[in-house]
């Protein structure tokens, strides 16, 4: 298994998911010496396939602040909160690490973006513009198809973010949460500021009604505080709109503390040649109103590789 940890492992906690946490001996690698690493075991999405039903992940690989070392995870609850033992870096005035101090920490699940977010350039919604041309799903925020439904096929091109429960508890009138794009980040690969664009939508479970979640605005009153106009829109999804790098900021502002978290991602669609071919065939089928069906056509013959 790729990135599998070697050596021995010990489990200390389990929740109802089930997810299991503990520690595993981590081999030496670049910038790391051998030692124990806090880990989580959970079922992957390919049960019964080529991979094992359970996979192990080094929790250090999921930290936003990668200078910390998390050695042992001792407990996990049903909200995914993990109690762990960690090492806090001691730095000098130049941010050079001089050593570490042991700390008890609470790891909060948090993810606004995956490493790569696909551009939603598919045509699952089947919407035509005023010229009669099929338009990509990312053209407008509306995630519904021509029947007014939000299908599982449509949502396959979205990413479901995760904001840990402590951030959404006790949201009184003095707490603000803002999600925004950091427009100051420079992308040296293109010699310009980051060009990636996303949008966030929220969906109500009862009837699949949807609303766009605003960026650069306090989302607590409408979306997160009990009684808000969109509090029952609990399923959130991130959509890739324009390709390029993007850095999102999550700002949690309360009277006693301010927390700023950043995540950087690449908005780009990575597909195999066969996947692109199937997508083009689907586009032609929809654009011609079912007249030109090329789904069984393979221009490369039987020997063509599907990779």
Q: What order do the SSEs take from the amino end to the carboxyl end, as H and E?
A: EEEEEEEEEHEEHEEEEEHEEEH
Helix content: under 10%
The low-pLDDT segments are none
Number of domain modules: 2
- Measured between the Cα atoms of the first and last residue, the distance is 20 Å
Strand and helix layout:
Layout: E1 9-14, E2 20-26, E3 35-43, E4 54-58, E5 69-76, E6 82-91, E7 97-107, E8 110-111, E9 116-117, H1 152-155, E10 158-159, E11 162-163, H2 165-168, E12 176-181, E13 186-187, E14 192-193, E15 197-203, E16 210-213, H3 220-224, E17 235-242, E18 244-254, E19 257-267, H4 273-287
Parallel strand pairs: 9-19
Antiparallel strand pairs: 1-2, 2-3, 3-4, 5-6, 6-7, 8-11, 10-17, 12-18, 13-14, 15-16, 15-17, 18-19
What does this entry look like structurally?
The protein folds into two domains: 9-107, no CATH class; 116-267, no CATH class. The model has no long low-confidence stretch (mean pLDDT 87). It is built from four helices and 19 strands. It is mainly β. The longest helix is centred in the last third of the chain and has 15 residues, at 273-287. Strands 1-2-3-4 form a four-stranded antiparallel sheet, with no helix packed on it. The protein has a four-stranded mixed sheet with strand order 9-19-18-12, with no helix packed on it. The protein has a four-stranded antiparallel sheet with strand order 10-17-15-16, with no helix packed on it.
């Amino acid at each position: 298994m790729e990135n599998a940890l070697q050596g021995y492992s010990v489990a200390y906690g389990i929740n109802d998911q089930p997810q299991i946490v503990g520690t595993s001996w981590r081999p030496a690698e670049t910038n790391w010496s051998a030692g124990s690493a806090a880990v989580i075991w959970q079922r992957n999405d390919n049960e019964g396939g080529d991979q094992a039903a359970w996979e192990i992940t080094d929790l250090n690989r999921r930290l936003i602040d990668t200078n910390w070392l998390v050695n042992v995870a001792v407990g996990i609850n049903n909200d995914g909160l993990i109690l762990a033992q960690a090492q806090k870096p001691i730095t000098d005035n130049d941010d050079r690490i001089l050593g570490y101090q042991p700390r008890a920490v609470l790891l909060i699940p948090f993810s606004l973006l995956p490493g790569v977010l696909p551009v939603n350039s598919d045509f699952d919604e089947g919407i035509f513009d005023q010229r009669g041309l099929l338009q990509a799903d990312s053209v407008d925020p509306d995630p519904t198809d021509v029947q007014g439904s939000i299908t599982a096929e449509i949502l396959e091109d979205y990413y479901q973010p995760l904001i840990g429960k402590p951030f959404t508890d006790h949201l009184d009138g003095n707490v603000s949460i803002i999600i925004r794009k950091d427009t100051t980040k420079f992308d040296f690969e293109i010699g310009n500021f980051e060009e990636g664009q996303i949008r966030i939508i929220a969906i109500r479970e009862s009837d699949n009604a949807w609303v766009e979640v605003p960026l650069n605005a306090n989302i607590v009153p409408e979306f997160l505080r009990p009684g808000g106009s969109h509090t029952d829109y609990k399923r959130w999804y991130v959509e890739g709109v324009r390709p390029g790098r993007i850095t999102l900021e999550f700002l949690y502002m309360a009277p006693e503390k301010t927390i700023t978290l950043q995540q950087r991602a690449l908005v780009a669609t990575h597909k195999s040649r066969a996947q692109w071919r199937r997508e083009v065939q689907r586009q032609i089928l929809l654009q011609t109103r079912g007249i030109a069906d090329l789904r069984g056509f393979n221009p490369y013959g039987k020997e063509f590789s599907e990779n």
